[in-house]
Design brief:
This protein folds into two domains: 4-234, P-loop containing nucleotide triphosphate hydrolases (Rossmann fold); 241-368, Nucleic acid-binding proteins (OB fold (Dihydrolipoamide Acetyltransferase, E2P)). It has eight helices and 20 strands. It has helices at 43-51, 93-103, 108-122, 137-149, 167-184, 195-201, 219-224, 229-234; strands at residues 4-12, 18-27, 32-36, 58-63, 66-67, 78-81, 155-159, 187-192, 204-209, 212-217, 241-250, 253-258, 263-267, 285-289, 294-297, 303-312, 316-322, 338-344, 354-359, 365-368. A hairpin with a 2-residue loop joins strand 9 (204-209) and strand 10. The longest helix has 18 residues, at 167-184.
Length: 390
């Protein structure tokens, strides 16, 4: 198989739109890399440049030791699986899988061996004589994977291959693609807007926004040590809570003051790694805490809020609320910071209750109020400039 190197890749269209900006990454042989981000962030464009379907404006792209900027897609030894399956409707499954090999003038016996091997691996042997329209979405996606598999490429490129499937089938196909990667020991590059797919499949994830790489890291490092507010909010479900606050050191504690006047005091040790200039109460700070990293109590210190909605999901309960100055008279229509708390199991919290959310001290996140870059050491955008790209 092959390693890849993308060095300062840019894609600028004729109208001046910069789709990809200064994209750099070294991808090791046999890695499973996921490009993730919202629609229009440049992830599919980056993938298409690797495939040779988009020209590179500037920068260098290597597959193995070969510079491939000007190489035709057919000569790059890659295989791509598209969102739309891109199957020939008039051909059988067997013919769809064999088509590319026949174009390469491969002997028919070798074609048959490759197709049968891939069909057995993907459990579609019984469908080889069917036409695509006679198959379900999941089966057609297996055929698309099989068509890529028979080529034995150096690199597999997958562009949102599961987005047309229902939630249950997506979960099944996620597991199948992950198992396929492990059995092939191949290099996979996978594009998705679904952070659940990214977290469960990738060995490393590239988070993108507006054409810029925000952070490249392992799934758990993205979750535990996001480099900026965007990454923190994009990774995790429900989304991380964010509050505009100031921090002021007071003896052995630090007071976190929200803009609505509410405040909590935490031990200084919990924020001792933050630069002291942020602890005098004058600099704007964004306080982040994940919904699953808070406990709820009706009689303890914490962030007071009124419960506006409760979702009982069986194994967990999602509590939604709003912070305000006068919670006793608070209406759900009033302005206030929204807050979401995720509890394990069922809970007796009801709409209209005034409760306290107590953050777990080892799970706090703080970001600069202007740059939105983390104030906590250890998070890195993988060596890139410490500046949030818009």
């Amino acid at each position: 198989m092959a390693n890849l190197k993308l060095s300062h890749i840019y894609k600028v269209y004729e109208n001046g739109h910069k789709a990809v900006n200064d994209f750099s990454i070294d991808i090791a042989d046999r890695e499973f890399i996921v490009f993730v981000g919202p629609s229009g962030c440049g992830k599919s464009t980056a993938l298409r440049m690797i495939a040779g379907l988009e020209t590179i404006t500037s920068g260098e792209l290597y597959i193995g030791d070969t510079l491939v900027n000007d190489m035709e897609p057919k000569d790059r030894d890659i295989a791509m699986v598209f969102q739309s399956y891109a199957l020939y409707p008039h051909m059988s499954v067997y013919e769809n899988m064999a088509f590319g090999l026949r174009n390469r003038k491969m002997p028919e016996q070798e074609i048959k061996e490759r197709v049968m091997k891939a069909a057995k691996m993907l459990d579609i042997v019984d469908y080889l004589e069917r036409k695509p329209k006679q198959m379900s979405g999941g089966q057609r996606q297996r055929v698309a994977l099989g068509r890529a598999l028979v080529r034995n490429p150096k690199v597999f490129l997958l562009d949102e291959p599961l987005s047309n499937l229902d939630a249950k089938l997506r979960a099944t196909m996620r597991a199948e693609i992950t198992a396929l990667h492990k059995s092939l020991n191949a290099t996979f590059i996978y594009v998705t807007h679904d952070q659940v797919e990214a977290m469960t499949m990738g060995t490393r994830i590239v988070v993108m926004k507006n054409g810029y790489v925000q952070q490249i890291d392992s799934p758990m490092n993205l979750y535990n040590a996001p480099y900026n507010k965007f990454v923190a909010g994009f990774i995790g479900t429900p989304q991380m809570n964010f509050f505009d606050v100031t921090l002021k050191k007071d003896g052995a504690g630090v007071k976190i003051s929200c803009k609505d006047g509410d405040s909590i005091i935490i031990p200084f040790d919990a924020v001792s790694m933050i630069d002291g200039s942020y602890l005098n109460g004058s600099k704007p700070v964004i306080f982040g805490i994940r919904p699953e990293h808070m406990d709820i109590s009706k009689d303890s210190d914490g962030l007071k809020f009124i419960v506006t909605n409760v979702e009982h999901l069986g194994n967990e309960t999602i509590v939604y609320g709003k912070l305000g100055d006068h919670l006793g008279d608070f209406s759900v229509k009033d302005e206030g910071d929204g807050i979401t708390v995720k509890l394990i199991g069922d809970d007796d919290v009801a709409v209209g209750d005034v409760v306290c959310a107590k953050p777990k001290l080892n799970k706090l996140h703080f970001f600069d109020g202007e740059t939105e870059v983390t104030l906590m050491p250890g998070a890195s955008p993988s060596g890139k400039a410490a500046e949030l790209k818009e």
